[in-house]
DNA sequence: AGTCCACTAAACACTC
DNA sequence: TGAGTGTTTAGTGGAC
């Protein structure tokens, strides 16, 4: 409700994916977000005034947000909340992740304001969750947080600068943002907010964060073992986003949360003489509890937003590169597949799912917030993979078909967010079938007993440590229902295996085009018009084949490479992308490039026309895995012909 | 609106 | 007998 109303009044143009450089868009958006408080004065004011206006807007937005945080959420009668279009319940999104996604936030807010709100939110959340213990050091913690946030922001800007996405001279928008978020202003904001006599409510709200799905409002399912030793805010992609003050810090400390003798947990900065003391402190003060998970979530939101923005900027860069270096009539096989793989479906998702910039309500109430990232990674891994935590995965409000339709490779996702799913009581955005299949293929023998599947589920996902009756029943149901799961009698009983042929048949692409058309599209001639669902399905299915040596069907590695490489984080999925190299000795690229789904009508496929350059262009960007699996010896050759 | 797909729940049979 | 396993059906809801 609130989101919708906000979205009706807060609209950034969907085409405006310029996160940092568009002053006018910022102003436009800001004007709208302010509910007309600033009026439409863009055309008359000077750039300096405009800059000032931006600052004011950002400040007001942040202020309103903070006010809402402090009082609105617990004051149902508050008219402000309902009337002010800027009242985007960002924090509500955190507490009830189903309500608003980062994409929605991004659609609603211009990037600078988004960042402003985000940073404010982070500060506030930290403050909220720390209130009972650190009441006396509010200001100190807040200052610390400000510093960290600014560092984070600057780091992000530097990244963009490195990519040439933003000029070295900060744009007006950036200046505005930075100035708008200067510590004094924020402190002032904080003073305003902290005076609101609802601190307890805020605390309660923070402590009562629903960190699980809405079907579970408890975090009890979090594994105790992971409580203290896993830095929850180290992100699923493995990247620590704790701002580092200098490059030496990382070297001097063996823990990303420890440096300069201080705990780097957001807002903590407790002094620890040595690592041992720090570990002790970490275990004691930052154990797995509501406060820590809330902080973790905040940090995740921060990173998500940055990644989303980076993804958009990357997308812009891709467009620029395409424009400058590539002729539309001469698609470059190396880059084009990237668009196909990720931006194809994802952009479609972006543009179609949110055509009006309206928030896209999650479709599954049971869907948790996930560390999935939204936004296409259209930059090749070779050019951007150093920043490539941007990328690929749509934030997963759509549980059921996320992995199927939106090109979210389960292997990649799991590889990146393994720790997250292990510890967070969130439902993985994959179907049972996908998970089961992944579990089976992940096993050494590519076969698991039912109980082992159960164990895999519980081992990999905190979510499945509860409601066992439900999901176990679902697992059994899926195993029986889908032909792709084959029960094999073994010496030790029945084991389940995966029939890849059936698995691929299970989700045939909806596109009804001829195999020739498919082939042409895959060869890079029709990427632009390639049906997104088909792209996603093809990419996903291909990826899954690539990820795991098939029991039955050899993957079409070429197609899947090109489909996958663009949106996959090479660094994090290298372990999964392992059959690429291992299969190559016996199969030619042409064989590999056999599109999986064309199997339905194999006679029309002309494999010779498949561009080898596609494979060549992709393979070099796929690092060989360190733990290559053995090639399955019983590769069915019929699938290759 | 119809269809497909995924999920959930449940009943039932079989084995150990 | 009960637990675990496997199969099947029905209902529901989202996506297309």
TrEMBL record:
<dbReference type="Pfam" id="PF16159">
    <property type="entry name" value="FOXP-CC"/>
</dbReference>
<feature type="region of interest" description="Disordered">
    <location>
        <begin position="231"/>
        <end position="254"/>
    </location>
</feature>
<feature type="DNA-binding region" description="Fork-head">
    <location>
        <begin position="427"/>
        <end position="500"/>
    </location>
</feature>
<feature type="compositionally biased region" description="Basic residues">
    <location>
        <begin position="386"/>
        <end position="401"/>
    </location>
</feature>
<dbReference type="Pfam" id="PF00250">
    <property type="entry name" value="Forkhead"/>
</dbReference>
<dbReference type="InterPro" id="IPR036388">
    <property type="entry name" value="WH-like_DNA-bd_sf"/>
</dbReference>
<dbReference type="GO" id="GO:0000978">
    <property type="term" value="F:RNA polymerase II cis-regulatory region sequence-specific DNA binding"/>
</dbReference>
<keyword id="KW-0479">Metal-binding</keyword>
<feature type="compositionally biased region" description="Basic and acidic residues">
    <location>
        <begin position="243"/>
        <end position="252"/>
    </location>
</feature>
<feature type="domain" description="Fork-head">
    <location>
        <begin position="427"/>
        <end position="500"/>
    </location>
</feature>
<keyword id="KW-0805">Transcription regulation</keyword>
<feature type="compositionally biased region" description="Acidic residues">
    <location>
        <begin position="629"/>
        <end position="641"/>
    </location>
</feature>
<feature type="region of interest" description="Disordered">
    <location>
        <begin position="1"/>
        <end position="45"/>
    </location>
</feature>
<feature type="region of interest" description="Disordered">
    <location>
        <begin position="376"/>
        <end position="401"/>
    </location>
</feature>
<keyword id="KW-0804">Transcription</keyword>
<feature type="compositionally biased region" description="Polar residues">
    <location>
        <begin position="572"/>
        <end position="593"/>
    </location>
</feature>
<keyword id="KW-0862">Zinc</keyword>
<dbReference type="InterPro" id="IPR047414">
    <property type="entry name" value="FH_FOXP4"/>
</dbReference>
<dbReference type="InterPro" id="IPR050998">
    <property type="entry name" value="FOXP"/>
</dbReference>
<keyword id="KW-0678">Repressor</keyword>
<dbReference type="InterPro" id="IPR036390">
    <property type="entry name" value="WH_DNA-bd_sf"/>
</dbReference>
<dbReference type="GO" id="GO:0008270">
    <property type="term" value="F:zinc ion binding"/>
</dbReference>
<feature type="compositionally biased region" description="Gly residues">
    <location>
        <begin position="28"/>
        <end position="38"/>
    </location>
</feature>
<feature type="region of interest" description="Disordered">
    <location>
        <begin position="572"/>
        <end position="641"/>
    </location>
</feature>
<dbReference type="InterPro" id="IPR032354">
    <property type="entry name" value="FOXP-CC"/>
</dbReference>
<keyword id="KW-0539">Nucleus</keyword>
<keyword id="KW-0238">DNA-binding</keyword>
<feature type="compositionally biased region" description="Polar residues">
    <location>
        <begin position="1"/>
        <end position="18"/>
    </location>
</feature>
<keyword id="KW-0863">Zinc-finger</keyword>
<dbReference type="GO" id="GO:0001227">
    <property type="term" value="F:DNA-binding transcription repressor activity, RNA polymerase II-specific"/>
</dbReference>
<dbReference type="GO" id="GO:0005634">
    <property type="term" value="C:nucleus"/>
</dbReference>
<dbReference type="InterPro" id="IPR001766">
    <property type="entry name" value="Fork_head_dom"/>
</dbReference>
<dbReference type="InterPro" id="IPR030456">
    <property type="entry name" value="TF_fork_head_CS_2"/>
</dbReference>
<protein>
    <submittedName>
        <fullName>Forkhead box P4</fullName>
    </submittedName>
</protein>
């Amino acid at each position: 409700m609130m989101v919708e109303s906000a979205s009706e009044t807060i609209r950034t143009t969907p085409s405006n994916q310029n996160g940092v450089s568009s002053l006018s868009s910022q102003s436009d958006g800001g004007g709208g977000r302010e509910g007309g408080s600033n009026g439409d004065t863009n055309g008359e004011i000077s750039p300096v005034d405009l800059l000032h206006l931006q600052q004011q807007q950002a400040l007001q937005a942040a202020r309103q947000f903070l006010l809402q945080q402090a009082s609105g959420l617990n004051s149902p009668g508050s008219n402000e909340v309902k009337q002010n279009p800027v009242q985007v319940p960002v924090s509500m999104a955190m507490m009830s992740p189903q309500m608003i996604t980062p994409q929605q936030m991004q659609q609603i807010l211009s990037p600078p304001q988004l960042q402003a709100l985000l940073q404010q939110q982070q500060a506030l959340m930290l403050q909220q969750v720390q209130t009972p213990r650190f009441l006396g050091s509010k200001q100190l913690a807040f200052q610390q947080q400000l510093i960290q946030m600014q560092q984070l922001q600057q780091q992000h800007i530097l990244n963009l600068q490195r990519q040439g996405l933003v000029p070295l001279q900060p744009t007006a928008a950036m200046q505005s943002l930075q100035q708008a978020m200067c510590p004094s202003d924020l402190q002032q904001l904080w003073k305003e907010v902290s005076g609101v006599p609802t601190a307890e409510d805020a605390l309660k709200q923070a402590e009562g964060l629903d960190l699980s799905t809405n079907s579970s409002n408890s975090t009890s399912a979090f594994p105790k073992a992971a409580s203290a030793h896993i830095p929850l805010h180290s992100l699923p992609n493995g990247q620590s986003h704790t701002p580092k003050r200098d490059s030496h810090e990382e070297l001097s400390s063996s823990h990303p949360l420890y440096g300069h003798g201080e705990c780097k947990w957001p807002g903590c900065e407790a002094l620890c003489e040595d690592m041992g003391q720090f570990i002790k402190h970490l275990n004691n003060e930052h154990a797995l509890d509501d406060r820590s998970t809330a902080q973790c979530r905040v940090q995740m939101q921060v990173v998500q937003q940055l990644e989303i923005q980076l993804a958009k900027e990357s997308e812009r860069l891709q467009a620029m590169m395409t424009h400058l270096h590539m002729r539309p009539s001469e698609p470059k096989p190396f880059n084009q597949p990237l668009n196909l793989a990720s931006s194809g479906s994802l952009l479609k998702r972006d543009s179609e799912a949110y055509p009006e910039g309206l928030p896209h309500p999650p479709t599954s109430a049971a869907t948790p917030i996930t560390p999935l990232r939204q936004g296409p990674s259209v930059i090749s891994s070779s050019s951007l993979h150093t920043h490539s935590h941007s990328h690929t995965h749509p934030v997963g409000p759509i549980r059921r078909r996320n992995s199927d339709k939106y090109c979210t490779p389960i292997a990649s996702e799991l590889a990146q967010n393994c720790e997250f799913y292990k510890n967070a009581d969130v439902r993985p955005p994959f179907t049972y079938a996908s998970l089961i299949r992944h579990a089976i293929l992940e096993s050494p023998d590519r076969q698991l007993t039912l109980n082992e599947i159960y164990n895999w589920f519980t081992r990999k996902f905190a979510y499945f440590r509860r409601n066992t009756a439900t999901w176990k029943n679902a697992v059994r149901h899926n195993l029986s229902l889908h032909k792709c799961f084959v029960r094999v009698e073994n010496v030790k009983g029945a084991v389940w295996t995966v029939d890849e042929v059936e698995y691929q048949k299970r989700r045939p692409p909806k596109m009804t085009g001829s195999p020739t058309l498919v082939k042409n599209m895959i060869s890079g001639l029709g990427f632009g018009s390639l049906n997104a669902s088909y792209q996603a399905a093809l990419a996903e299915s291909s990826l899954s084949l690539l990820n795991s040596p098939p029991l039955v069907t050899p993957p079409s590695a070429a197609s899947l490479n090109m489909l996958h490489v663009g949106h996959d984080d090479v660094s994090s999925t290298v372990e999964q992308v392992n059959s690429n190299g291992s299969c190559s000795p016996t199969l030619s690229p042409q064989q590999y490039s056999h599109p999986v789904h064309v199997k339905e009508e194999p006679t029309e496929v002309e494999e010779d026309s498949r561009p080898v350059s596609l494979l060549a262009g992709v393979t070099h960007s796929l690092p060989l895995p360190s733990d290559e699996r053995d090639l399955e010896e019983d590769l069915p050759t019929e699938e290759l012909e």
